[in-house]
Q: What sequence folds into this?
């Protein structure tokens, strides 16, 4: 009895004790969750604050008139006809990039200038340039050699036409050989049906079977898929034809992989594929280049242009970073978000000064707007140069630490890892398909973008790129993508674009007579129609349902 009582006493005590412990544990957990949850909001507030500051410090935004391809008044009529102006969805400020305070940066800010070549107040876009200039320097010399051989041959018109005539016949031969492949494929397909893990297998097989990076450009009269007249959305910076470029061959080349065909872009089908979805491009001005190309290619399927409108009620201008175009009948949007580095451009105090920094450990703060995408196409590369990153001195930031000095490629890798873990954490695998487009080559001859480099004389693709060197940054991208949980499809366009020295705006990235066009050529971006259309055909190829395999 006694024992029993003491036992029950003991057990009660024990019970009470453990209850206290566990309830304090629960309290502690709840408390820490609260703390964690509330911290980000504090963070956000700080960021917001910083932004406001940045805005106040930043130079006055350049007016629409100077920046837009079409001036406010002149062509406003047809533009208005085209786009139903919607109410602003969000404050314009929220989309503004805080421009770096540094004058030196301003001069080549890609998105604000390079994109926006029109600028009377700022130098044109060249922007990306030196990235490649660095890596291309070695290549450059060889290319000049190659180019000069080409030059000797080019002036002869007869030879050119001959080549053109020859080209189709070569194609024909390939078609027959492809038929054989087709037969083999359809045979294999019926067997495949039995297999269970087909989707992944087929995808792998297709990629294994066909290295689309190996091939050549063939002249094809049936291109381009749109013109400056059929697509009113081409930015002045890419609208070479309207800016006075006379040669037209650059629009007529089709990329022909060695071992397979890329299906011709079918705008109706593409719109069907993205019906009710959001197709989003995130990256620097070269992704903007590709996004505009996509818009133009899709416009081809729209009879009534009024059924395409900018959901923020703006025209395409160089000034603003973000756009969303809606294709009403398909309830889909095709969007672009400017993000030069994919990670967060920030500010921090170093010594007594507030300096521009790049938070390589933190995703771009615009990311919440991309997250809901169904198809996401990223790029970054061209801004990762010593020139644009203050040579890495007091520029890269992780946590509170601003690295006194960090190598650009180390920083690039860390930023990519930040991006990769964001994708792995935040992207819904079931909903969203992720692509990464690797770097596009530039072709400055005889100098750099800001020292007289040029590409205007090129009107034909390079014959061979034997000297091609796959940039290190692309290697890093591939490495990191491989380690990701999310399958990311690489749009591997570097090499095929490397042939296309003829595809850049050169001096036709601005209206004739513009102050800059004569001195500074744009050999980084691409004319539209042009090379980015091919990038989009590749994207389309990847998006096509797998059954299409049999039809190829
Ligand atoms: C442009 O339009 C504004 C009003 O929208 C008008 O005041 C101005 O005179 C116009 N400028 C030209 C050059 O037509
Ligand atoms: C943008 O920010 C400035 C300064 O912070 C403010 O005065 C202005 O009203 C804002 N514009 C919009 C459209 O929110
Ligand atoms: C281009 O290729 C053709 C065929 O391979 C060759 O005959 C021609 O010499 C090449 N031209 C240049 C400039 O390399
Ligand atoms: C398209 O380019 C041509 C020059 O090749 C030009 O005459 C025409 O005005 C341009 N069209 C548009 C709509 O800008
Ligand atoms: C494009 O796709 C649509 C819809 O799938 C189809 O009806 C049409 O025939 C295709 N056009 C071409 C030229 O293949
Ligand atoms: C991308 O293309 C380059 C050049 O053709 C090639 O070296 C690289 O292996 C390709 N990457 C992938 C993942 O296919």
A:
């Amino acid at each position: 009895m006694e024992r029993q009582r003491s036992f029950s006493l003991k057990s009660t005590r024990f019970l009470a004790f453990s209850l206290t412990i566990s309830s304090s544990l629960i309290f502690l957990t709840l408390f820490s969750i609260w703390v964690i949850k509330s911290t980000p909001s504090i963070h956000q507030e700080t960021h917001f604050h910083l932004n406001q500051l940045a805005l106040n410090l930043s130079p006055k935004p350049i007016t629409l008139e100077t920046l837009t391809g079409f001036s406010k008044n002149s062509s406003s009529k047809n533009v208005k006809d085209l786009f139903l102006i919607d109410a602003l969805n969000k404050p314009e400020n929220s989309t503004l990039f805080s421009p770096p305070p540094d004058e030196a940066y301003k001069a080549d800010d890609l998105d604000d200038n390079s994109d926006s070549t029109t600028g009377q107040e700022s130098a044109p876009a060249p922007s990306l340039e030196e990235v490649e200039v660095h890596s291309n320097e070695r290549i450059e010399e060889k290319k000049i050699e190659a180019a000069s051989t080409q030059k000797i041959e080019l002036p002869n018109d007869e030879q050119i036409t001959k080549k053109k005539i020859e080209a189709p016949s070569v194609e024909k031969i390939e078609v027959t050989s492809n038929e054989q492949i087709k037969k083999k494929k359809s045979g294999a397909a019926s067997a495949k049906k039995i297999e269970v893990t087909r989707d992944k297998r087929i995808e792998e097989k297709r990629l294994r079977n066909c290295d689309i990076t190996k091939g050549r450009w063939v002249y094809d009269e049936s291109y381009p898929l749109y013109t400056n007249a059929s697509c009113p959305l081409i930015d002045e910076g890419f609208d070479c034809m309207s800016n006075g470029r006379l040669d037209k061959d650059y629009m007529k080349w089709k990329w022909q992989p060695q071992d397979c065909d890329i299906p011709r872009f079918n705008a109706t089908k593409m719109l069907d594929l993205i019906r009710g979805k959001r197709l989003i491009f995130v990256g620097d001005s070269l992704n903007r280049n590709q996004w505009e190309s996509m818009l133009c290619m899709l416009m081809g399927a729209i009879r009534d242009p009024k059924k395409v409108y900018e959901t923020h009620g703006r025209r395409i201008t160089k000034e603003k970073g973000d756009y969303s175009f809606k294709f009403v009948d398909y309830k889909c949007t095709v969007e672009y978000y400017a993000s030069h580095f994919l990670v967060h451009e920030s500010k921090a105090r170093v010594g007594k000064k507030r300096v521009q920094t790049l938070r390589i450990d933190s995703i771009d703060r615009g990311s919440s707007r991309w997250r809901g995408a169904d198809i996401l196409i990223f790029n970054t590369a061209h801004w990762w140069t010593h020139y644009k990153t203050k040579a890495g001195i007091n520029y890269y930031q992780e946590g509170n630490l601003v690295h006194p000095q960090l190598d650009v490629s180390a920083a690039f890798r860390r930023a990519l890892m930040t991006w990769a873990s964001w994708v792995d954490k935040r992207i819904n695998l079931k909903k969203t398909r992720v692509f990464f487009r690797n770097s596009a080559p530039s072709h400055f001859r005889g100098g750099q973008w800001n020292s007289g480099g040029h590409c205007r004389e090129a009107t034909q693709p390079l014959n061979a790129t034997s000297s091609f060197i796959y940039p290190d940054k692309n290697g890093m991208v591939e490495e990191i993508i491989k380690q990701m949980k999310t399958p990311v499809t690489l749009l591997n366009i570097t090499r095929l674009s490397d042939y296309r020295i003829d595809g850049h705006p050169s001096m036709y990235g601005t209206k004739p007579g513009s102050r800059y066009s004569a001195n500074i050529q744009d050999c980084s971006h691409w004319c539209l129609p042009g090379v980015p259309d091919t990038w989009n055909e590749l994207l389309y190829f990847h998006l096509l349902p797998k059954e299409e395999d049999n039809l190829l």
